[in-house]
Amino acid sequence: QYDKAIEHHEKALKINLDIFGTNHSDVANSYHNLGNSYYNNKQYDKAIENYEKALKYGLDDAKPTQIRVARLYNIAGVLYDVNKQHDKAIEYHEKALKIKLDIFGTNHSDVAWSYDDLGDSYRNNKQHDKAIEHYEKALKIEKELFRDTYRLVGDSNWKLGVSFEHKKEMKTALKYYEEAYKIYSKVLGESHAETIRAKTKVSEMEG
């Protein structure tokens, strides 16, 4: 199925390149579509290669395009993380964050998403202080936007718990795990896997 999609998008790309040359939004779209197909086929190196070309040939100053570019940077960043290229992932998430801050300002869910992605990349790179810094920024925005009615608020608390646990700051870790459990319980219900995981973690840490 995905091989067929790749073949289809390769043909579309060739046609668009013949018609428009490289610097055109239709060509960028073709690279983007190819990137998506390779991503779905778990061919992450090829996905990155095509997303990079989409970015290279599709940049302009129109706001909708810039938002799309930011999300492309996000996708590329996640893929670099999957490939254990954490420094590269951080670089791309920073680019996404800069665009989003310019467009949305500080208090927006897309900005929180980028802070969270950066936290993940720093944590994967074992830079736990930097991870905590970015998770805290994500959590601050999420709490202002959603209070305690949204799963992502629980996720950010959980990730902060994990990061503080890595730093052996168990008291602070427990505080965040407890908050994650409280939110998961409220939003997802007691029988949900995330709620059970958080409850179990709190019980273990309380001894």
Automatic annotation (TrEMBL):
InterPro entries named in the record: TPR-like_helical_dom_sf, TPR_rpt
PANTHER family recorded: AAA+ ATPASE DOMAIN-CONTAINING PROTEIN, TETRATRICOPEPTIDE REPEAT PROTEIN (AFU_ORTHOLOGUE AFUA_6G03870)
UniProt entry tagged with the keyword Repeat: yes
SMART domains for the chain: TPR
Coiled coil: none
Keywords: Repeat, TPR repeat
SUPFAM superfamilies to which the protein is assigned, alphabetical: TPR-like (SSF48452)
Taxonomy, superkingdom: Eukaryota
Protein name: Uncharacterized protein
